[in-house]
């Protein structure tokens, strides 16, 4: 069972001390799927030439993240 009441579209911040992929250290991630081991989600990337960017997906274990809010807009 999950140690947090996490649901889809919530925002989590990836802990810079425990995140396994340091490129995501401190990033805000939009949760797309909650799993028994943690959550999958994405960090929104910047675009260029006036266009929106893509998403960088990540699978975070429970010890890598803290709930910080809910996304108003979700990119799909």
Secondary-structure element pattern, one letter each: EEEEE
Main sheet makeup: 5 strands, antiparallel
Specify Rg, calculated over alpha carbons. 12 Å
Principal-axes shape call: globular
- Tell me the structural class: mainly beta
Total domain count: 1
Mean pLDDT across all residues, rounded?
A: 92
The N- and C-terminal alpha carbons lie at a distance of 27 Å
- Count up the helices: 0
Percentage of residues in strands: 35-45%
DSSP summary, beta strand count: 5
Order of strands, widest sheet? 4-3-2-1-5
As a percent range, the share of helical residues equals under 10%
Unreliable spans: none
Write up this protein.
The chain is mainly β. It has one domain. The chain is about 0% helix and about 45% strand. It is built from no helices and 5 strands. Strands 4-3-2-1-5 form a 5-stranded antiparallel sheet, with no helix packed on it. Strand 2 (about 30-35) and strand 3 form a beta hairpin. It starts with 9 loop residues before the first strand and ends in a 6-residue tail after the last strand. The model has no long low-confidence stretch (mean pLDDT about 90).
